[in-house]
Write a structure and sequence with these properties.
This protein is 58% helix and 4% strand. It contains 13 helices and four strands. It has a two-stranded antiparallel sheet. The protein is globular, with a radius of gyration of 20 Å. 25% of the residues are buried.
């Protein structure tokens, strides 16, 4: 009897929780999938995928290629490996409920690129020490595909690639099939991380990054907010050149 009651409790809780979770529209689901899509570099891709499939987790659940195999990769192969595979396990236990109408929201943060994993120290070192070359490869790929994958957005943040802002604005405005609001989010996070004064004192900053905000905070998408973010991003870019 206790077992039956327990099952009934679990079912009731699950059903009640499901009713409280807002349903996503077709447009919101499509945009959500777009937000999570990475950019996959072509350099040695078949080889890299085969190597990744053979990686075994260590005692801390990290999934790293052996030093010997990693160092044997060419520069471009390492770029591919690092862009499609994060080595360090970092479980995120916080449940992120679905957001309705994601396609009309400018979020405070871009979504995770690798679920429960993040780049290891050696992967971050690769990005930092090869910064200019990494930017060149990303810009070439973005130019061809006309989109910025979620992994590329994280790489841009990691290396603080402020010089890419005009290029990213061009990509944002040129994409007529899917408005990538996470490029605007990328600008917001860049200005936050660099403590750009005019942004830090703004109402947008308080709404997105103050103590009262959360990871799910967002600005409504409209022309005024789009124009303001792009203007601030360009002002920030110009200020960094002085």
């Amino acid at each position: 009897m206790k077992y039956v009651l327990a099952l009934l409790f679990v079912f009731s809780f699950t059903a009640g929780f499901a009713q409280r979770v807002p349903r996503k529209s077709k447009e919101s689901r499509a945009y959500h999938d777009y937000r999570l899509k990475p950019t996959v570099p072509p350099y040695g891709l078949v080889k890299i995928k085969a190597l990744i499939q053979k990686i075994k987790s260590d005692e801390e659940d990290n999934e790293a290629l052996s030093p010997k195999l990693y160092e044997a990769l060419s520069f471009r192969e390492k770029f591919t490996y690092n862009m499609i595979h994060a080595e360090s396990y970092s479980q995120n236990c916080d449940y992120m409920p679905p957001q309705p109408n994601e396609q009309i929201k400018i979020f405070a943060y871009i979504p995770d690129a690798f679920n429960e994993f993040q780049w290891s120290d050696r992967q971050l070192t690769f990005l930092a020490t090869n910064r200019d070359s990494v930017i060149a490869l990303m810009e070439g790929s973005i130019t061809r595909s006309k989109r910025v994958g979620v992994n590329f957005k994280h790489a841009i943040l990691e290396i603080n690639a402020k010089e890419m802002i005009p290029f990213l604005i061009t990509i944002y405005k040129g994409n007529k099939t899917m408005r990538d609001l996470d490029i605007l989010t990328l600008f917001l996070q860049m200005m936050k991380e660099n403590e750009y004064g005019p942004f830090i004192v703004s109402g947008s900053y308080r709404k997105l990054y103050s103590d009262e905000s959360s990871y799910r905070s967002y600005l409504n998408y409209n022309q005024a907010n789009e124009d303001l973010i792009i203007k601030r991003a360009m002002d920030f870019y110009n200020a960094t050149k002085k």
